[in-house]
Specification:
The chain is α+β, with helices and mostly antiparallel strands and 153 residues long. It has helices at residues 7-15, 81-87, 143-149; strands spanning 20-21, 31-35, 42-45, 50-54, 57-61, 66-72, 75-80, 88-90, 96-98, 104-107, 113-117, 120-124, 129-132, 138-141, 150-152. A hairpin with a 2-residue loop joins strand 4 (50-54) and strand 5.
Length: 153
Amino acid sequence: MNSHWSWSALRQHVARHLPRIDRPPPRARWRLVRPRLAEPVRAELARSNGEIETQRGVLRYKAGKHYIVHYGPGDRAPIRRALFEHLYRRREDGRYEKRADILLRYFTLSYPVMIETLDGAELAHPGDWIMQGAAEELWPISARDAQTKYRHA
């Protein structure tokens, strides 16, 4: 292997050789969760088309169709507008908080896959939670991060 590859190039090389899924496997074992009350986030409606490179892949967004959510320093992601407006409430201070009354579901896999999300392919590691939203879209989240963001219903 080329020792001079960038992290992005290496991730793309590995991702090409992984199975890709855009729907749950037939025998997925579903678990139900609700969002935990969390720190409010900053978000704005995208004003132009673009991409955000994350640790899990490159995510695309479109002007007026996505919100760009800022979870913390260097941690941001696009969320489809309808989904964002379903999951979040605007606070008086202009930030957004996730609604705790939403019911979501997830499954896990024992092997790595590329998840075809609404906004681009994302890597799911073994044991990651593969969440399914209201529009039946899938997205991966590490088990550690998921346990801080969601509680079992």
